[in-house]
Structure formats: structure tokens, C-alpha cells
Amino acid sequence: MPLKDFARSLRDGILPRERLRRANPGAFVAGTVTFAGDASRARLAADVSVLGPTALFVTDGGGLNGALLEVGERTYIGEFNNIRCAGAPIRIGRHCLVSQHITIVGSNHGTAPGTPIVDQPWTGDGVVIGDDVWIGAGAVILPGARIGDGCVIAANSTVKGEIPAGSIVAGSPATVLRHR
Length: 180
Description:
Elements: H1 3-12, H2 16-23, E1 28-29, E2 34-37, E3 42-44, E4 49-50, E5 55-58, E6 68-71, E7 76-77, E8 82-84, E9 89-92, E10 97-98, E11 103-105, E12 108-109, E13 122-123, E14 127-129, E15 134-135, E16 140-141, E17 146-147, E18 152-153, E19 158-159, E20 162-163, E21 167-171, E22 174-179
Parallel strand pairs: 1-4, 2-5, 3-6, 4-7, 5-8, 6-9, 7-10, 8-11, 9-14, 10-15, 11-16, 14-17, 15-18, 16-19, 17-20, 18-21
Antiparallel strand pairs: 12-13, 21-22
């Protein structure tokens, strides 16, 4: 969080995590969750649980300004996760299980030659995770991932692109092993 935003939250007496809690009264957000961004752009449905330490960053940057986090009802987000919209939307469906040590990112830095990576505009169109999805520990969900309803993402898998509904996937990059 930029220093000026932190100073503003001290002045206002409301830390960012508390703003997130107040904007989403039906959700449980653990005291060890780190939140940065606009709480009105983080929509946590009823009975969502976000355990900590987990980082939720609903921020714009790198030339992108579409940050939005939506999490459907009865979804569980475990400990030590890193969810960063980075200027793009991330949508997680209903009745999902997001295990521990998972990274979900909505955009990435550009990689064109001739310009330092830190100076390049970000690219990516966010992430969509369907309903009833289980994401195993250590998985990485990359920008552009579209995970269908009922999927199982094995531990330590890397997901990019589209995963058909009902698929069980594993690997880096994740490939379909079978269907539920």
C-alpha cells in the first residue's frame, strides 16, 4: 500500500482490511488478511471465508484499470494465498475450495525486447473460475485462465487458457487427466 494511502487510513481510523469487512458483511475475513485497493471493487458473497495470512490486492496499474474481485457464496479461500487483480477482473464462483499457497493473477508485465520489463505495460484479461471448483495447494492461476464448473486443479499445477467443465487437471502447464 502506498504511504499516502496508509496515512489516509490512519487519519480516517479505518484500515483497508476493515473497509473490506464493512463492504462485505456476510463474509468472514480473517484479521491476518492483507487487503489493498478499493473495497467497493471487492465483492465477497455470503458465507465466503478468507483465512490469513492471505493477500488480496484489488488494485489497478501498468496501464490497466479494471480491477475487480468477485467471490461467490460459500467459497473458502485458505491460508497463505496471493490474489492480485493487477488491473483486471478475477471472478471465483460459488461453492469453491481454494487451498493454501495459491497464486491467482489477473495480468502480467509485458516482455517485449528493448524495454525493461518494469517499464512495460501490463497485459491480461483477468481470470474466471466457475462454481464448485477445487484448487489444490500450490497452484498458480495465470491471466486469461477460464476454469469451468466442477473442475479439480491438482496441487502445484499451473493453469493458463481454458479448462473444460468437470475436468481434473494436473501439471505445469495443467493438462486434463480425466473428468468428474
